[in-house]
Design goal:
CATH class of chain B: Alpha Beta
Number of helices of chain B: 7
Helix content of chain B: 40-55%
Radius of gyration of chain B: 15 Å
Largest sheet of chain B: 5 strands, mixed
Structural class of chain B: alpha+beta
Strand content of chain A: under 5%
Shape of chain B: globular
Radius of gyration of chain A: 17 Å
CATH topology of chain B: Beta Polymerase, domain 2
Largest interface: A-B, 28 and 32 residues
Distance between the termini of chain B: 40 Å
Number of domains of chain A: 2
Strand content of chain B: 15-25%
Number of strands of chain A: 0
Oligomer: heterodimer
Amino acid sequence: MSAPIDRREVFRTAWPSYGPAWDAAVEAGVDMLQLERNLRLTPGERVAQHQDALEFAEMLRASMRDAAVQR
Amino acid sequence: MQQSNDRLLRCLVDGGVDFVIVGGIAAIAHGALRTTLDLDIVAAFNRDNMDRLLRALRDLHPRNATRPDLGELQATAEELARYRNLYLVTDSGELDVLGELPPVGGYAEAAAGAVHVELFGKRCAVLGLDHLIAIKEFLGRPKDQEALRELRAIRERLK
């Protein structure tokens, strides 16, 4: 039985094989669901999404610092 | 200091700097999932372009990334034009300015294969997917191998 976090089987059945590079990415554990979702965005939306993630990570780090100070 | 690639890109485009986005941000623009912090660009290392770069970044107080203790970058455009690469840290984050991008070449070769996309309301040149893959194959580090899997899958998916 595979672990729920291992979604290779899900990816194999959800999409056709687009070729050997696609199959290798599935086997390597690349999140093809996220990849497919990304490919539906424009390049501008992808980079803006990345900037949002950086800002979220920074906010998270600041919150952790504040929590550490209060402990 | 927070990495603000949107602010860096706006400054570079508004400043008329000739550059192509490469590295992790280029990979993200093509759809890759890997995360990266800094902005990497390949730029024309000539006096005029380095002059535009210095003016574009002036308000962001660029420092040498390896020696930020030396304070704001003091080199002139003529001096920078003789550099091969320039690794900067600014008030809006890190910016690597590359003069060469093996095995692709320099700015001219990168620009010839670039795609033009709208990023943060500005039209930017982004390194083409084939060039991006060629560079990752050339570098061959473990982290490049991981990125390669995604980039090759994207190329195959988009065929």
